[in-house]
Amino acid sequence: MTMFSRTDMSLLGQWWQTVDRWTIAAIITLATLGAFLIIAASPPIAERLSLDTFHFVGRQVLFLPLAMISMFAVSFLSRVNIRRLSLIIFSFAAALMMFTLFSGAEIKGATRWVNVVGVSLQPSEFIKPAFAVIAASMFAAWRLEERFPGYLVVLGLYGGVVLLLIAQPDVGMAVLISFVWGLQFFLAGLPMVLVMGIGTVFIFGGFAAYFQFSHVRERIERFIDPQNSDVYQVSQSLKAFKKGGVFGRGPGEGHVKENLPDAHSDFIFAVAVEEFGMIAGLLIVSVFGFIVLRGLMRVFKETDLFVQLAVAGLLAQFGLQAIINLASTLNLMPTKGATLPFISYGGSSLLALSISMGMVLSLTRERPNSKFTSRTVWERSKL
Length: 383
Description:
Elements: H1 11-18, H2 21-48, H3 55-75, H4 79-103, E1 105-107, E2 110-116, E3 119-121, H5 123-144, H6 150-167, H7 171-187, H8 192-212, H9 214-224, H10 232-244, H11 268-299, H12 305-329, H13 347-363, H14 377-381
């Protein structure tokens, strides 16, 4: 039984019949789990910082409804308006990133946050989904009309974004955006010469980041040689997994949150596994996998190259961010300050992810009367 009749032609009725309700349910599940885990993980941290016990809980509760409203509002937009929204977000986020370099707050050696109406925001979080959609639009226009220099426009925008990120510095975000941009470029059918050129630039960029930025070098060296390095947070995280076992120690019984400075954000997955067990951890991972695979299954039925590239880019950002967080927590890669989507504490990340998934929901809505505007990825791969 559905909430709306198939004959209901109202805006809300049409939206309900065309939107992917399973993806919405999965996202709400993650957000709900995140709220409970922040309630469990954040009080000890707040007390260590001499803040109100439920300081982080209160801020997350403030952002969560706003994030969900943003996601649903964006999911109502047409594909044309998704492009327009992305351009607006990209322009404002880029301007704020430039402003951050001069007047932003420096935290842990990086200048990434700016105060907007009394709220601390990280503009680079918002430029991620906006850039993915703009890149998809330019690539699709390029493939539809090859005289249009869409890939050159995207190349210029990409260079500008990466320079702003390196200036903060935020090498991890630059790598994430670079990976997604390269994926979209590949799906759009870039020439092999450019594939080799981009790959070479990425390799040299990685070496340059290692030698240029001390924090990058230190994280890599800690990962390679943990015996002679300070790996306190990672070692505490691994202890939490061991103590949690299969079924966990029980709600509120975990101890890792009392020792980990970032138990409510970057290492919240360790808190989840210690208190609720490995089974709960696997269920969380499966929800992330479901969202990504469900979105890809729907978008591959599309015939609009823009939609395919945009959704592939947005889902790649979502999935890769989750993988980076989980891998860092499990000591499978050097640590990188990436939040676990919809679960970790962080207002900017939560809002940006909600907008991103709202775009996915909008672009994957069933539109039986939509016109074919470009060739599909599969058709291009056969050429």
